[in-house]
Amino acid sequence: MTPTTAAAPARRAPFAERVRQRAFANGARVYVLENRMNPTLAISGSLQAGRLYAPEDRRLIASITAGELMKGTARRTKLELAEALESRAASLSFSSDASDPVGVDIAGAALSRDTDLLLEILTEVLVSPSFPDEELQKEKKRLVGSIRQQQDQTSARAFEEAMRRVYPAEHPLHRLTGEQRIARVEALRREDLEGYYGARWGAGSLALVIVGDVEAERILDLLEKALGSWRPGPAPAIPAVAVPPPSPCREIVAMPDKASADVVLAQPSDLKRTDDDFLACSLANSALGQSSLTSRLGVRVRDTEGLTYGIHSSLGATHVPGPVVVSLTVKPDSRDAALASTLDEVRNFLKTGLTEKEITEEKSSRIGRFKVDLGSNSGMASALDAAIYYGFGIAYLDEFPAKVAAVTKEQADTAFARRVRPEDFTIVSAGTLEPATQGAAGTAAIET
Amino acid sequence: MSREPEAITAILKPQSKIQDPFEFVEERAGIREFRVRSNGLRVLLIQNRVAPVLTFAIVYHVGSRNEAVGHTGATHLLEHLMFKGTPEFQRAKGTAVASVLEALGARFNATTWFDRTNYYETIPSDQFEVALRIESSRMRRALLRDEDRVPEMTVVRNEFERGENSPFQVLYKHTFATAFREHPYHHPTIGWRSDIEEVTTERLREFYDTFYHPNNATAMVIGDFEEDAALERIAAHFAPIPASPQPIPRVYTVEPPQEGERRFVVRRVGQVGWCALSWRTVEAVHADTPALAVLGNILGGGITSRLHQSLVEKNLALSVSVVPWQLRDPALFSVFAPVRPGVELSEVESVIRQEIARIAADAVTEAECAKAQTQIEAEVIFDRDSTDQIAASLSEAIAVADWKWYAEYPAAIGRVTPEDVRRVVLTYLHDDALTVGLYVPKPGQSEIVEEEKAP
Asked: How are beta strands B42-47 and B31-36 bridged, if at all?
């Protein structure tokens, strides 16, 4: 049945043994995994400088500071940095996504012959960004245009409005309206970025993972020399974030000329990525709606009823408790039917819990996918980075299959039921839609 | 001792007993090609033992290029129905294709494009057999039931509607429909809405029976496997399938030369306009394809590229994408740019034309050419990082040319000179071969309406 088993490479040593690591005196932690199969390397890293640490009325400083890091250093202009990387087919980026209020993501890749170049630019940009005003002025104009572009998209509008309603203004997951964001962008000054960089960026919370065709000890030495004397900055610390009570309501963002509508159902939850029952909860979520083809929601709303091309449920848990979100796209005149089926299926799922077949399949799926995702340098770098970012440690990668296997149906059911109540959803539909007649959106209308 | 006997042994290896069902065709750049003697199925093997994972993929040489009015989108709708089942794999038995693959943790999907349809699964390598059973079952035993097509049609229609929400997709569809009037690249892979809604199950079955045969397919295994064992299992599943009873119909429609600039405008409510310029070019196997790829990179590959500098850095456009389409028949060279609100679309169009004229007049530098070559060559190396990336690149190559084209592509790119780049600009990027598309935002307000407040 499995003819290739015999040919599989010899069993590898555990990650915990293969990953070389070093903590520098200033707090920076570096992890290197040698993988000589392909002459490339991948970098994945993080630093605690996300929007959670920015002033409440100017959260976007965090993402713009991260993005502007590549716009110039004490030694090089933006164009010189880009020329150095692009002429060698290398890449490097810093970003801070609003869905993870804590972290800044660092991502890089190069052919291994350009390892030193990539590390040199990475450290130069981390330690001595210059935030040129001319670049910020250009970026502000581009950002205003990009926000206007997003305002034309039904998916962005539905999600933005749902997050605006679910989380109060002071919460780091609250989203401003497009016009509010444009006003914030226009008010930004160079000093804001420089100030935020000075206050939040430093070695104290920096973790870097490098995987690929490299010599671990040499990389650790090289980085210690380049980053070992960088200022420590703030020590890692994640302030507690309150979970707001649910604020269920139904809204339409009416947008003319849209052939497809987006529906987002969201509610706050107290689930964090670091919670003991996160894995159990996430297996339950996968059974409910991870796949448009095989999950409960997918089988009912897409496969059986044909009401959507894509339907997903997701958990927004990070270091900060995040929302439970179900999203789908629909033909505008099928919206009521699709929404009714979606809510009905969530209720059924909560009533019955997972079947034994579902929990077995979700567990084997999660373990198999974990192996498949570790099939590349960038995949290994991301998995290691996540394990370190959430404080699980390297051994988490070795223990993961057993941890998944140990989850029981009861644990999954309990973890999910504790966090999701169908009546707590804030429901936002964006597209060329008319408001439902009173109560109609809750009934199981059938499209003919 | 002479090394010769060993070399001969290596050449003879493919003749070993286990490979009897196969004819060994050729090896190049780590890719070994075999052909199933009984039915013409081509099989490509690439060992890549980065991880205990492999990708199995099948490319059928059928895409929207093989469709005509009335059944546009049929290839794509059929691809969707291939997930609805076969006698062995179906939801009623708890063995739906997607469920079986999902339970393995597979990364899997299928996609349809102008020249091909592909099915692929990346799986733990000890699960190879499952992928073989699914794909051999789908090759000739798809159920294609009307009760499956009806709900799937509305799924696909929503996919079409999602595309209509995207200015980029609207522009690309209009561009092909305008630049190609006779050749089937005229219609989009997703199909026209009314064809998606009206095409019958019988018509889809006819399509399936015409094109889904081993002699119209290429299978590939990439990753962690042992060759003899892999070939033996492929033979067990695929060799019994007969070749098509009729020859696979060929597409013979040729788009005549374009004799003047064409323009179109789409007006919809929104805030951001787009500009798209596309020139008629050549088929992928044409000798000028590598120079057009290098040109694409010089114009749009990264921050240092010419159009990024003249459009994005000047705050005229929000971004710019350059697409040197590589298809089986002559295709296009396209530039797409969302225009920053407040800037005239005509200004962006004029800057794009000026940048093309500048290359026609002054050529590009050696450094620009070298950077583009490094980036394109490096992509091939980055691809090798994961088996599904290799499968994706190789599938596209097979669809538009063949695997040797993929194997030789980096070297062909390496031979491009700055003069070649200028020459292809002069040859192809002239006004008579140009289609200009403008997506013009119409004024209109969105508003937030409260539907219902919870009690």
From this structure: antiparallel
Give yes or no for residue A436 having a pLDDT over 80.
no
The ipTM is 0.92
Instruction: Answer whether CATH 3.40.50.10490 is correct for domain A249-442.
Output: no
Distance CA A101, CA A62 (A): 9
Looking at CA atoms only, how far is residue A83 from chain B in angstroms? 6
For the domain B262-442, what is the CATH code? Answer: 3.30.830.10
pLDDT, residue B50, reads 74
Q: Look at the alpha carbons of A29, A34, A37, A38 in this order and tell me if their dihedral is positive or negative.
A: positive
**pTM (2 decimals)?**
0.93
Pick A309's closest partner by Cβ from B162, B303, B378.
B162
Closest partner residue to B382 (CB to CB) among A40, A141, A303 is A40
Q: What percent of chain A has pLDDT over 90?
A: 91
Q: Which residues of A touch B302 (CB under 8 A)?
A: 82, 86
- The domains of chain A are located at 16-227, 249-442
Evaluate whether B17-238 and B262-442 have a shared fold: yes
Say yes or no to pLDDT of A438 above 60.
Answer: no
Position A437 confidence tier, pLDDT thresholds 50, 70, 90: low
How many beta-carbon pairs under 8 angstroms link A with B?
A: 267
Instruction: Give yes or no for a contact between A288 and A298, defined as CB atoms under 8 angstroms apart.
Output: no
For the cut 50, the answer to whether the pLDDT of residue A447 exceeds it is: no
Residues in a beta bridge with B313:
none
Give the distance from residue A217's alpha carbon to the nearest chain B alpha carbon, in angstroms: 22
For chain B, what is the mean pLDDT? Answer: 93
CATH topology of domain B17-238: Cytochrome Bc1 Complex; Chain A, domain 1 (3.30.830)
Average pLDDT over residues B317-332: 98
Looking at domain A16-227, what is its CATH homologous superfamily?
Metalloenzyme, LuxS/M16 peptidase-like (3.30.830.10)
Q: What does R_g of chain A's alpha carbons equal in angstroms?
A: 23
3-state SS record for chain A: CCCCHHHCCCCCCCHHHHCEEEECCCCCEEEEEECCCCCEEEEEEEECCCHHHCCHHHCCHHHHHHHHHHHEECCCEHHHHHHHHHCCCCEEEEECCCCCCCCEEEEEEEEHHHHHHHHHHHHHHHHCECCCHHHHHHHHHHHHHHHHHHHCCHHHHHHHHHHHHHCCCCCCCCCCCHHHHHHHHHHCCHHHHHHHHHHHCCHHHCEEEEEECCCHHHHHHHHHHHHCCCCCCCCCCCCCCCCCCCCCEEEEEECCCCCCEEEEEEECCCCCCCCCCHHHHHHHHHHHHCCCCCCHHHHHHHHHCCCCCCEEEEECCCCCCCCEEEEEEECHHHHHHHHHHHHHHHHHHHHHCCCHHHHHHHHHHHHHHHHHHCCCHHHHHHHHHHHHHCCCCCHHHHHHHHHHHHCCHHHHHHHHHCCCCHHHCEEEEEECCCCCCCCHHHCCCCCC
pLDDT at residue A440 above 80?
Answer: no
Domain boundaries, chain B: 17-238, 262-442
Q: Look at residue A1 in the predicted model and tell me its pLDDT.
A: 30
Interchain CB distance below 8 Å, B271 and A5: no
Question: In the numeric block, which tokens belong to residue A328?
Answer: 């789908």
A78-87 per-position pLDDT tens digit: 999 999 999 9
Structure tokens at A441: 């959106």
Determine whether the interchain pair B272/A257 forms a contact, defined as Cβ–Cβ distance below 8 Å: no
Q: What is the mean pLDDT of residues A295-322?
A: 97
